[in-house]
């Protein structure tokens, strides 16, 4: 069995326990321009993600914010149903198991991945669309847009328990003509910022990374290293969470303790301790655990410890969304002695293979015809990169995630059809000297 330091599960309690619909009112824009036709001067203001769902960042003069000054009409959301809850929970743990790294601490934000793929799905057709919808319980992309709009806008964000979700689309207008319907749908349902940029400039790489940094509360600062010549678009989701415990751990109770690794060896950790009547105890057939609330009680941290006679990865592989929700709902408020190690780490994973293993194969070969048209060829997903960060200490938890879906245009082979007079030769390949040379101008 390979080593792993710690597995933690962050529970957004509204996602799996208490859900309510919230459809904010929106104003219809009076502008007659479509998104792809509208341009503006670059912004130099910076705001934190909790102040706005779409943070403004300083952009280089090669990047244009196409949404600046444009107000989109708020769409109609869809009331959260058990269908959505169950499908989301199942996707959460299907992806978690597929993207797990058994050699180090792992952390995913399935919600971030779900939003990024759903934005992309608005441009998918045929088998590609069917497979992307299949990831989420065969919920149609139209229904998924409405569910996610309602859900994201229902998630609370308070001063001591902040949750910020931001989305953006970046494209090079010299490499792709993006359909307005695609951009408008993602702007309306996902509040996605739309940026036209020169993908051949290093400044664009910095602009995208600056957006990621601003919208993950500075927790993740570099995801894009360079832009490939065939890349025409990035679809990006960022999630940032920063919350204080409802009842913080006392610094004076933090002590050095042993943490037993999977191979039986031990390592010293800083163990936080509490013993209050404000936490929740969890006991199932194969594990024990606790739920500890963050300030305001809207979000919680859930930890599950498999029984000593249960193989750790057998336990992980047995997980389903239904099993997790059942464990979470069984939490009983009682006096429970908690020992939680302080920890902080970053994790990144390429999700191409995990997503293929879950049945999403076609979009990596094409089928994104409703995004737009590119002179470079057909559109396909070339990469899905997921980066996360978490820090847990006596005061609370900070966690950030970003998912980047890269859209490339397939380079089509040059076409040569000899349908008019041509010259030909039969050559000696060692010298390229023609042994025969001729023309074809007629077929009489």
Task: Tell me about this structure.
The protein has 444 residues and is α+β, with helices and mostly antiparallel strands. The chain has ten helices and 17 strands. It has helices at residues 13-16, 82-98, 110-121, 126-135, 141-154, 180-190, 202-215, 312-317, 321-329, 352-357; strands spanning 9-11, 63-65, 161-171, 177-178, 193-197, 231-244, 255-260, 266-283, 287-293, 300-306, 332-341, 343-350, 372-373, 379-392, 396-409, 422-428, 433-440. The strands form four sheets. It has a seven-stranded mixed beta sheet with strand order 2-5-3-6-15-14-12, sandwiched between helices. 40% of the residues are buried.
What are the defining features of this structure?
alpha+beta; 17 strands; disordered N terminus; 6-stranded antiparallel sheet; 31% strand; Antithrombin, Chain I, domain 2; 10 helices; 7-stranded mixed sheet; 444 residues
TL;DR of this structure?
With 444 residues, the protein is of the alpha+beta class. The chain is built from ten helices and 17 strands. The strands form four sheets. A seven-stranded mixed β-sheet has the order 2-5-3-6-15-14-12, sandwiched between helices. Strands 1, 7, 8, 9, 10 and 11 form a six-stranded antiparallel β-sheet that branches.
* Portion in helices: 10-25%
User: Any idea what the shape is?
Assistant: elongated
Radius of gyration: 26 Å
Instruction: Detail the poorly predicted runs.
Output: 1-33, 38-55
Record the strand order, biggest sheet.
Answer: 2-5-3-6-15-14-12
Helix-strand pattern, N to C?
EHEHHHHEEHEHEEEEEHHEEHEEEEE
Structural class by helix and strand composition: alpha+beta
What's the average pLDDT? 83
Give me the CATH superfamily of the domain at 11-244 and 345-409: Antithrombin, subunit I, domain 2
Number of H- or I-type helical stretches: 10
Q: Main sheet?
A: 7 strands, mixed
How many β-strand stretches?
17
> In CATH terms, what is the architecture of the domain at 11-244 and 345-409?
2-Layer Sandwich
Q: What's the CATH C level of the domain at 11-244 and 345-409?
A: Alpha Beta
- The end-to-end span amounts to 76 Å
| CATH T-level topology of the domain at 11-244 and 345-409 | Antithrombin, Chain I, domain 2
Beta-strand portion reads: 25-35%
């Amino acid at each position: 069995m390979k080593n792993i330091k710690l597995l933690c599960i962050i529970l957004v309690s509204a996602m799996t326990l208490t859900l309510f619909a919230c459809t904010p009112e929106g104003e219809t824009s009076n502008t007659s321009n479509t998104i792809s036709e509208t341009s503006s001067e670059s912004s130099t203001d910076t705001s934190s993600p909790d102040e706005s769902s779409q943070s403004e960042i300083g952009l280089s003069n090669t990047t244009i914010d196409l949404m600046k000054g444009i107000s989109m009409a708020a769409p109609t959301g869809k009331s959260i149903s058990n269908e959505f809850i169950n499908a989301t929970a199942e996707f959460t743990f299907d992806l978690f198991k597929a993207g797990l790294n058994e050699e180090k601490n792992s952390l995913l934000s399935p919600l971030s991945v779900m939003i990024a793929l759903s934005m992309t799905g608005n441009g998918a057709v045929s088998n590609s669309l069917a497979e992307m919808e299949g990831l989420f319980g065969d919920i149609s992309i139209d229904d998924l847009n409405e569910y996610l709009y309602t859900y994201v806008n229902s998630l609370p964000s308070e001063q001591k328990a902040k949750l910020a979700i931001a989305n953006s689309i970046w494209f090079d207008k010299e490499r792709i003509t993006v359909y307005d319907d695609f951009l408008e749908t993602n702007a309306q349902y996902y509040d996605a910022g739309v940026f036209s940029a020169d993908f051949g400039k290093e400044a664009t790489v910095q602009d995208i990374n600056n957006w990621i940094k601003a919208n993950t509360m500075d927790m993740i600062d570099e995801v894009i290293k360079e832009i490939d010549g065939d890349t025409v678009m990035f679809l990006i989701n960022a999630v940032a969470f920063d919350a204080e415990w409802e009842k913080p751990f006392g610094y004076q109770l933090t002590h050095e303790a042993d943490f037993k690794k999977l191979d039986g060896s031990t390592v010293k950790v800083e163990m936080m301790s509490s013993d209050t009547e404000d936490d929740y105890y969890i006991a199932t057939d194969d594990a024990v655990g606790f739920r500890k609330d963050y300030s305001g009680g809207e979000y919680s941290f859930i930890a599950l410890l498999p029984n000593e006679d249960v193989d750790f990865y057998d336990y992980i592989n047995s997980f389903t969304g239904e099993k997790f929700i059942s464990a979470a709902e069984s939490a009983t408020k009682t006096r429970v002695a908690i020992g939680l190690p302080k920890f902080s780490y970053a994790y990144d994973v390429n999700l191409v293979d995990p997503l293929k293993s879950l049945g999403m194969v076609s979009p990596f070969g094409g089928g994104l015809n409703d995004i737009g048209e590119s002179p470079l060829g057909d559109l396909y997903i070339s990469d899905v990169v997921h980066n996360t960060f978490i820090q847990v200490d006596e005061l609370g938890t900070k966690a950030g995630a970003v998912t980047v879906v890269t859209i490339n245009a397939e380079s089509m082979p040059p076409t040569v059809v000899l349908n008019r007079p041509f010259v030909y030769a039969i050559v000696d390949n060692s010298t390229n000297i023609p042994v025969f040379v001729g023309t074809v101008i007629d077929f009489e």
